[in-house]
Amino acid sequence: MLEKLCDSLLNAPIVRRGEYYYFIHPIADGVPFLEPDLLEEITDHIVQIADMDVDRIIAIEAMGIPLATALSLKTGIPFSIIRKRSYELDGEILLSQQTGYSKGELYINAIKNGDRVLIVDDVVSTGGTLMALITALKSMGAEVCDTVVVLERGEGVSRMRDMGFEVKTLVRISVDENGVSIED
Ligand SMILES: O=P(O)(O)OC[C@H]1O[C@H](OP(=O)(O)OP(=O)(O)O)[C@H](O)[C@@H]1O
Ligand SMILES: Nc1nc2[nH]cnc2c(=O)[nH]1
Predict the structure, then answer these.
(1) Distance 160 CA to ligand 1 centre (A)
(2) Which of 56, 62, 73, 166 has the most CB atoms at less than 10 Å from its CB?
């Protein structure tokens, strides 16, 4: 199961971002290139495990976008992108994003009270991005039916679960200067 994804992880290059060992992988960076077979394997799996009875798929810029696009084509469910820049539309919600290596701002548009949403993203590490997003969506009245992330590294997901946030992940990895390892 998820053979293409697991195989592809073993060759992922590592670069330092400050103290953080950042892996580079097609699904998390679009670099060097994303094979359709790999995207298909991953999104077929997401359709199997996620609650797809939703009004909207929510993707975080940038690398939630290919996942949401493929899921949308498979299911006919529209998607919204949480953008890293403002559109200054009425009702736009700003949230702060903090990862293990960066800080920034995210902007939510066009989610209304009662919308049933599925969040998809490529990687969860500290969980900072997802916790901020889920909290903001709930405060806007959205029902976060499910959250699915392809790759889990670090302690973020267990921290999230301790704090009452639910998240499904496809593969758990660890990363050091030598590369990516797949956890059981
Ligand atoms: O669990 P966290 O520590 O919050 O990290 C996870 C976030 O980091 C990456 O986003 P990044 O801002 O690097 O965006 P990208 O998709 O543009 O690479 C990833 O896509 C997640 O959104
Ligand atoms: N590509 C990539 N995205 C990330 N998002 C959070 N951590 C990482 C990482 O190590 N690599």
Answers:
(1) 16
(2) 56
Give 30-40 pLDDT, tens digit per residue.
999 999 999 99
Q: Where are the domains of the chain?
A: 3-178
CA angle at 61 for the pair 58 and 64, rounded to the nearest 5°? 55
The CB of 128 under 6 Å from ligand 1? The reply is yes
CATH architecture classification, 3-178: 3-Layer(aba) Sandwich (3.40)
Q: What is the pTM of this model?
A: 0.98
DSSP for the chain, please give it. Answer: --HHHHHHHTT--EEEETTEEEE--HHHH--S---HHHHHHHHHHHHHHS----SEEEEETTTTHHHHHHHHHHH---EEEEBSS----TT-EEEEEE-SS-EEEEEE-S--TT-EEEEEEEEESSSHHHHHHHHHHHHTT-EEEEEEEEEEETTHHHHHHHTT---EEEEEEEEETTEEEE--
Sign of CA dihedral 17, 120, 79, 96: negative
Question: Which of 9, 17, 23 best tests ligand 2's pocket when mutated (most atoms within 8 Å of CB)?
Answer: 23
